[in-house]
């Protein structure tokens, strides 16, 4: 499966569902983004059960602002509608493979429990 370009309107429906979604925030003028693109595309072909998406920060400036993207490329990973990873920087293929494996192995019941505990903690 090839990567899918996301617009502002398509973003929420894509990341809020079940499953794993990788989002690459990029721009055409960005050298590291262009270097990362083939690595990201190859991973999308090797893992057809994962949705690999791209957001052009020039075309989707509102979306980039909503997610406070200040450095590109920035990679985000959503699992079952929960943001589980967000870091700037291009990854090598081996690093991306490790991130994919980590996303697959997450215990989402534990993640939800931790989120619930954090939300119920009194603020100081």
TrEMBL record:
One of its GO terms (molecular function) is protein-disulfide reductase activity. The keyword Disulfide bond applies. The keyword Translocase does not apply. It comes from the Bacteria. Residues 1-105 form the Thioredoxin domain. Keywords: Disulfide bond. SUPFAM superfamilies: Thioredoxin-like (SSF52833). NCBIfam families: thioredoxin. This is Thioredoxin. The gene is trxA.
């Amino acid at each position: 499966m090839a990567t899918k370009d996301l617009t502002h309107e398509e973003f929420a429906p894509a990341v809020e569902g079940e499953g794993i979604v990788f989002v690459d925030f990029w721009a055409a003028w960005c050298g590291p983004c262009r270097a990362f693109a083939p690595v990201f595309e190859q991973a999308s072909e090797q893992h057809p059960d994962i949705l690999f998406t791209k957001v052009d920060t020039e075309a989707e400036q509102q979306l980039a602002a909503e997610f406070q993207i200040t450095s590109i490329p920035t990679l985000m990973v959503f699992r079952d509608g929960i943001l589980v990873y967000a870091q700037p920087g291009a990854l090598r293929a081996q690093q991306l493979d490790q991130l994919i494996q980590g996303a697959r192995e997450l215990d989402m019941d534990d993640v939800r429990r931790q989120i619930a505990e954090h939300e119920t903690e009194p603020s100081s």
